[in-house]
Amino acid sequence: MAKLPYHYGVKLRIFPSNEQKRLIKRNSDASRFIYNEMNGMNKELFLLRQVKIPIELVQKRIQTLEQRLKTPSTGISNVHGWLNDNDLDSLMKANAIKNYRAAWNLFRKVHRAGIPVFHKKRIEQKYQTSCMYASKLALPNMKNGSVRIINFRHIQLPKLGSLRFKGISKEIFNRLDNIRIGTTTISMDATGRYYVSMQLASEQPFVNKVNNETATSIGIDLNIDNFLTDSEGKIVANPRYYRSVKGTLAKAQRKLSRRALRAKKEHKPLSNAKNYQKQRNVVAAIQRKIANRRKNFLHLVSTTLIKKHDLVVAEELRSKNTLRNHVLAMSISDVGWRTFLGMLAYKADLYGQKFITVNPRNTTQTCSACGFVMGTGTTNKLTLADRDWTCPQCETYHIRDHNAAKNILAKGIASM
């Protein structure tokens, strides 16, 4: 998979039977258990190593844990025999172990993510498997692996068998013979919908490269008032999907809270309280609708920008830092800046375009005509309330966001 030059991902909705739903839950629970078991062994090993006195019992326990962590697939299964059940996918175990080790590598290399923590039991279910191919196959593809497409409506998955699905594009379906499947994720969301996500790879590009007749560059300034303003002066309005249903969602959540209290008074576990579960599905459906509408909007805007311009320049945003402002936190989360920048990055690679981010320092305060920086000399810095201003040096009138987009584009071109 890694050796192939072109990669892509698809997410399909699947419709499992009751027996297949049971198998998905068993594999999801087992995957979470293996991850947590490895995390527990590592934590215990860390504490035992703090003991400086060479106690024989402690030394033996350290050796036992180290041996289990070297070969966790057999080490954990030998202690917990139920993991050898025929219902469980062996590749699910391998992927759970790989994910735990990847979490540690992410902590060691990036340092932004904390150490791996225990995965809580949630409504959602998820586990990963891999598509395996026979060594004698001349041409591995989407039709002859352990995960394979049977026809336009059915997919074969390890342990689960054949499942009905929908959502594959005709472009992918017509190229099944030259595409390979890699890691496959089976999941269930909070509303009970099931999905399968597949990593695909091929020697041929999944989309046609964009060939614009004239090279065009654009800078974009992301803000809360409008979703974005570009260096050409065009504005994309902020749809505010969360705010549009905030009242409806709040009302549904209050009803959910009341039903939770009633279930507790009647000494019912929430998993068995029918009224609570019914209302929980209502709340989850509203939240899913918000997320889907936002994601659809971000896909449309990002694809349009990448296809129409050879170079797209945006400001480098750290959403984690901006969310500390409790006044703007909800608006920043609603607009989805981080997701949008991620889409621009991978779509630029997909379509053969360029996307870069620049330091946003002084892009708002600098005059794009003469380079004068507000806040220097006797001038004051612009505040968030100042939506337009006139440069005191060259007397050029600026609309704040349009001026910032021009400066972002200039910085991007200068950095190339």
UniProtKB/TrEMBL annotation:
One of its GO terms (biological process) is DNA recombination. The keyword Coiled coil does not apply. It comes from the Bacteria. Keywords: DNA recombination, DNA-binding, Metal-binding, Transposition, Zinc. This is Transposase. Residues 211-323 form the Probable transposase IS891/IS1136/IS1341 domain. PANTHER family: RNA-GUIDED DNA ENDONUCLEASE INSQ-RELATED, TRANSPOSASE. In the C-terminal section; belongs to the transposase 35 family. GO terms for molecular function: DNA binding; metal ion binding. Residues 337-408 form the Cas12f1-like TNB domain. Residues 9-38 form the Transposase putative helix-turn-helix domain. InterPro entries: Cas12f1-like_TNB, RNA-guided_DNA_endo/Transpos, Transposase, Transposase_put_HTH. Pfam families: Cas12f1-like_TNB, HTH_OrfB_IS605, OrfB_IS605. It comes from Ligilactobacillus ubinensis.
